[in-house]
């Protein structure tokens, strides 16, 4: 049986003063543990988007009519609030699961040796985005599901997914200087792809904000735009993204690019085709809730796939040990 070290009063004081440094001085995670922690944060950032969509699509957006409490007199949903209250409050509770996943990623990154400050910064960036989006989610409820705040809520979730994707990728590569795997013209093409994808997602929030799914059974104002026109613009942008992805795959084949960028471009192309099928089917079937939810999940996967293509254009080898910061294993350094 492994002996548990005795916790002294000095240890307790150190743990209270800087818990992250205290844990890091006593635990060194396996690299795969750090990768799994980053992946868990990424998965939860997608799950919270999908469950948030479920809240909207079931008309439960005001199931808890106020914030931060569920009602003026209760922190939690009550039986009188029915299914809508349970769905809305359940989604709020998932925010704590997301915080736990992000917290695990931060602790694992902080405890890794040698310490990598880039991973720690990415972990904390996720934490602050989650906090900001939680406050914005409360504002969404307080303003009665104003469609512009709902759109901002989704876009901030997309920003969280972006940071989580970058952190997950960085845990799977070294800490050395990046080395490009393709030429500058290919990199520029991918940046255009990323920019159009961002525009596609942004216009998608307008389509939702002007569409019939207001998120609540009561009368909720919609964005005052021509829904048909915005939907067609969204479809045009989607076809541009598909065309750019196919062009990128063709260029990568022509220049005999490494398998990494080629494989991720192929994966993105497949995701885009599936997302397009869902989009057209939901358009011609009057936006059934299940397909709209699937389309929201697809939007997250398209965004992740695009970022993975971008991150595949370079490689990062392990850094030279001489370039890494010195950090004794038992030193309680500041976070």
- Weakly predicted, low-confidence segments: 323-335
Oligomer: single chain
Taken in chain order, the helices and strands follow as HHHHHHEHHHHE
| Terminal Cα span | 32 Å
Please estimate the helix content.
55-70%
- The proportion of strand residues reads under 5%
- Tell me how many strands there are: 2
Overall geometry comes to flat
Radius of gyration, CA atoms, in whole angstroms? 23 Å
* Sheet having the most strands: 2 strands, antiparallel
Q: Round the mean pLDDT to the nearest integer and report it.
A: 89
User: What structural class do you assign from the helix and strand content?
Assistant: mainly alpha
> If strands are numbered along the chain, what order do they take across the biggest sheet?
1-2
- Structure annotation, total helices: 10
Could you explain how this protein is built, in words?
- With 335 residues, the chain is an all-alpha fold.
- It is built from ten helices and two strands, in the order H-H-H-H-H-H-E-H-H-H-H-E.
- A two-stranded antiparallel sheet has the order 1-2.
- Helix 5 runs antiparallel to helix 6.
- The longest helix has 30 residues.
- It is flat, with a radius of gyration of 23 Å.
- The two termini are 32 Å apart.
- The C terminus is likely disordered.
